[in-house]
Amino acid sequence: MQASDTPTTAVPPPPLAAPWPVVPPGPERPRQRPRLLQFAIFIAAVSWYFCVRALAESASNGLRLRFDLEDVQPVMEALFELFLVVLGLALLRAIERRRAPLRMTLGLPRRATSRAEWATGAAIGWGLAVASVLPMALARTLNVRLWATPRAFELLGLSLITLAVATLARDMGLHGYAFQRLIDAIGPVRATIAMALLSAVYTGFNPAASGAAIAISVAMSVLVSLCWLRTHAIWLLWGLRFAWAASTAVLFGLPVAGNAAYSTVFETRAVGPHWLTGGGYGPAAALLSGVILLGGIAVLVRATDDYAWDYTHPPIIPAGYDVTILPPAAHVAMEEAAKAAPVSPASLVQILPAAPQIPGVPTSPE
Asked: Could you tell me where the DSSP H helices lie in the chain?
């Protein structure tokens, strides 16, 4: 049986289109690391920080005894602590094989608002210290002694340097790196709670600490954790902690966590109820300070709205998938046939422009 020579109008099925290319939405994402590894690195970073404190104290005491450097011993201890913290965290970064710059790993990114962030934190820390000490002054519980000697002012400068370096080393070791790894392991909320519990345990080992001091240390830990969560850097946190410690110890002459060594020009003794003064531990053990810290959390959140928007929200990256819908084969065949067919002049229709119609004026036919 022979095939018919009569042309058929059947349209062949369209060819199968190639699969759409998959385009990843946005730039390459950082490689996700196992959560257990992140938690192990957090434990290592925290352990290294507490070991560093013991090593720095031992080394500075050795140099003090060897070269009779009694006045600069706290500064040397803070510098040793900062150096060892950076060295240990750089080693952990190499083990973890992170490609981010060391400044980013330590929580000190280079940005245009770094000075403003530090100043904002310092203003909040100073305000919290003033709000904690002002009720003591109004209640007349402060006995202040002034030492206006050249050596006292020299020690004041050394105290400020010591507090600046020591607070930087602490914030860098605990929140600049360790807190980041803990967030990657268990999330920001659980990480904040875990850091608060760690602060409570650490404060509990201080012989001068009371129950109120432990509770206030939890509130302070939540406050400084929010500093990181709102900016993803330690500029704000460093300014807040330094201003709190410097205002309490150097400006008001009160002990900080039971340590009164930084009170050089002003030496203050608080006599009054423990809930107001904190006793020998300082304002960090006064219940009134805990209430003030809770208010400071609200102030911090309100003051960092712009930083949170700029640095904590992921950038919006335009992306999508290439969607190309091929026309039906019958439509393509009709267009090709129309292009190939000759155009007859008789089939063309000319459309003349219409003359304007004016009411009452007859138009002449053409």
From this structure: 35-67, 73-96, 102-105, 114-138, 150-171, 179-186, 188-204, 211-231, 235-246, 274-277, 287-303, 305-311, 329-340
